[in-house]
Amino acid sequence: MSTANITSQTLALAGVLQSAYLVDQIARTGKAPAESVNPSINSLFVFDAKDSAAIYGGVYGVKLGLQVLSDILTGGHRHQYQSIIRYTMGMLYLQKKLLANDELLSIIRSRLEHASLKAEHFSDNPASTAKSIAAIYQDTLSTFKFRIHISGSMQQLQNPQNADTIRALLLAGIRSAVLWRQAGGRRWKWLFARRQLLQCAKELLAGC
Fold this sequence. Notes:
By secondary structure, the chain is mainly alpha-helical. Helix content is 69%, strand content 0%. It has helices at 3-29, 34-42, 52-55, 63-73, 82-99, 102-118, 126-139, 154-157, 160-182, 189-192, 194-206. The two termini are 24 Å apart.
């Protein structure tokens, strides 16, 4: 596997895991670090990028995801990451279903392009932007029979702004999952390319 391919796969997988981690944080506490939320959400508005890192505004944009990926691949904090791994597997499954539906892909792209005209950056108006993206998620991916069940505090999950941000992050995670597959990523590579992914994640983290 080429260095470019493994780097693209590692960054995209970190993007999925970062979204999953942030979803878990918001579902349980109602809070998540803006320096990680913003790059994840903004990645939905990057339609043409020179490389994988540019999608997240640079490697630092998925620093949290790279750390989670590194932790999981080294076998640490397994109990802590149970929900995050479950959300990640759910997003990887949904991206496969999505890639088989060209019409839905076209609708999502068109609506994201429209939403991007209203929000150049997620930080400008996070609640409004999250609400727009959440509506896209509900009208498209939520129509599949398979749903990602989110666990957490009922109080936080019933908060409309939290619910919108969670759906927006799920869409961002699924977009990263699409990028991962386009870079040659497959579920079995969690096992057989584990060493390469871990080494690449550590090297990328060292440069952050």
